[in-house]
Design goal:
homodimer, 348 residues, alpha/beta, TIM Barrel, 7-stranded parallel sheet, two-stranded antiparallel sheet, 16 helices, 9 strands
């Protein structure tokens, strides 16, 4: 497409900038994923999951697949939150059916083995290339979202060397040697800023910061390691790109969602599945747009329950700035026909 | 002990009944557990974990161990939330180092294989015997807590046949065939009531209902499957034993904690680690007592951070009805010396 990409006809951007489109924009977390046969085909062609992330041709293709099929209002760059630690020099691999593995970073001394922030771009250049291609390839009404993992969530994987139930290794470090742990968070905050700025320069129109394990933090640590890094990232981005909206996702923050947008400056907060919609309307929507939070299980089970719940969310949240989404990523078991039904329900 | 057990000198009961002792009572979730060498010795003697649960001698012993060592204000019956499904006829076993396994109950038809509520007591009689022995053996200032898993949480294990990350099997059932799933929740609600009433008759002075996976429910389902069963259980207990306090623990409820005590009638809500203390004071403590919510990781790491955080919780919550506890069970890695420090800090 040669036409310049503007915001006038983008429902997602309009919502994030305080305008109210006639219906909420919709996209779904992990919308490019295993529930789609075309994704599985491209994934098989790519080789490993990381090969797919670093292949601009194929990463562009899988990002576009759900846009073609469902006409979502936003496309989100296909990548992984662990590319940043890899770009910082940490060894990363994926065990099929189990998830990511990393050579753990467990102490202040281990931090010395990591690269400097300015050196991450060499590894991440193919990701920026994917963003550039997407920026040229998307329909003009589709908003392009870039993203990164939040420093705390990325740190939980870096320290544990894998995903886990309670993020205990990172939590132990933050209590037992808080200065060293704060250095890791500082490094990740800087790297995240640098990474997101490059995505924006490559064409990302919105950026989202995924703090999937924010709910594992006690309240004082949540302020220190979830709120404060999100604020620093948002301020740094807006200092250079004041018009680029930032979406925060402090998953599991519970009552900690209240005040998160004000404290960090994000333009929208993504709500996990547990957040009550009336509470979101009353306690959150005056501070920022909200995004969420349909139970992804409903895209497996479908039926009336799916339609009724989607309608309910729109009824309660649709009078304020609202972006329709799930409360968690779509699962491999989801039925594309149910996604179709959902999109029809939201688009009206 | 022959002296009758009254409430006059029990800090825990006084707090739950709206009185304000000079300092918050303290006990810890899973205080009888693997972090204690004397527990590990008794556990080895017992054989399997289930053998320990069903052995009144040894279950009494492990319940008393942390009382002897630390002088906690409350003892909680040593048992497991999965004894109820086992008493209902579901096959249950534990895989060492992995956790519980059950023969899954996956459909309405499977419900027909379960026993009736009135038949659970035969299996559970040794648990009631443990409560009777504890009632006679505890120091008079120590409150005896009985407990059960909440219907939703127990159902997640019954349906999945094991513990899991997202409780997806139960969530799928509740959406895809909600009437059948509601029958399972009804059966568990009745069984839980019958179980807790027997514990009270055997000497439990307080009962706690653990809804460990409440946070996995979308808000509408949280009302239906967490709030409503907790209300029914509380009403049924108070109809017969109006003076027995009930503690609810809708772990991960986030903003759903607000209004939970009013909607269910519980006398206290146990707070998970993520709940901000100022919010608990402002939004919850006017409705009920609160209990919690120190990060259990601090009992691994210890030091100033432990003492400062405990003091902070007491400072913010200590002016209202407050029971000191963790936000989640104590871990096997916890250091008994740090528990000692914590108890000293709280008892002043």
């Amino acid at each position: 497409m040669d036409a310049p990409r503007g915001m006038a006809d983008k429902a997602m951007l309009r919502t994030l900038r305080g305008d109210q489109p006639s219906r909420p924009p919709i996209w779904l977390m992990r919308q490019a994923g295993r529930y789609l046969p075309e994704y599985r085909a491209t994934r098989a062609e790519a080789g490993s999951f990381l090969d797919l992330c670093y292949n601009p041709d194929l990463a562009t293709e899988v990002t576009l697949q759900p846009i073609r099929r469902f006409g979502f209002d936003a496309a989100i760059l296909f990548a992984d939150i662990l590319l940043v630690p890899q770009a910082l020099g940490q060894k990363l691999w994926f065990v099929e059916g189990e998830g990511p593995r990393l050579e753990p970073v467990e102490s202040r001394e281990d931090l010395g083995r990591l690269k400097r922030t300015e050196d991450i771009h060499e590894t991440l250049e193919p990701v920026y290339e994917t963003v550039r291609r997407l920026s040229g390839a998307l329909p003009r009404e589709t908003t392009l979202i870039g993203f990164a993992g939040a420093p705390w969530t990325v740190a939980t994987y870096m320290v544990a060397g894998r995903g886990g139930l309670d993020q205990a290794p990172a939590r132990k470090w933050l209590y037992s040697e808080s200065e060293g742990f704060a250095k890791l968070i500082d490094l990740l905050t800087e790297a995240t800023i640098a990474y997101l700025l490059r995505q924006i320069e490559a064409g990302a129109e919105v950026v989202k910061v995924f703090d999937s394990w924010a709910g594992a933090l006690a309240p004082d640590q949540f302020q220190k390691y979830a709120v404060e890094p999100a604020r620093r990232i948002t301020v740094a981005i807006k200092a250079i790109h004041p018009d680029v909206p930032v979406i925060g996702f402090p998953r599991g923050a519970g009552a900690g969602y209240a005040g998160f947008a004000k404290a960090t400056g994000v333009d929208a907060v993504a709500l996990d599945t547990s957040v009550p919609e009336e509470w979101a309307r009353d306690a959150l929507q005056s501070d920022s747009a909200v995004q969420g939070n349909l139970d992804p299980i409903l895209l497996i089970t479908g039926g009336d329950a799916l339609v009724r719940r989607a309608e309910r969310l729109i009824e309660i949240l649709g009078d304020g700035p609202y972006i329709f989404n799930l409360g968690h990523g779509i699962t491999p078991e989801a039925d594309p026909a149910h996604v179709e039904t959902l999109v029809r329900t939201v688009k009206g």
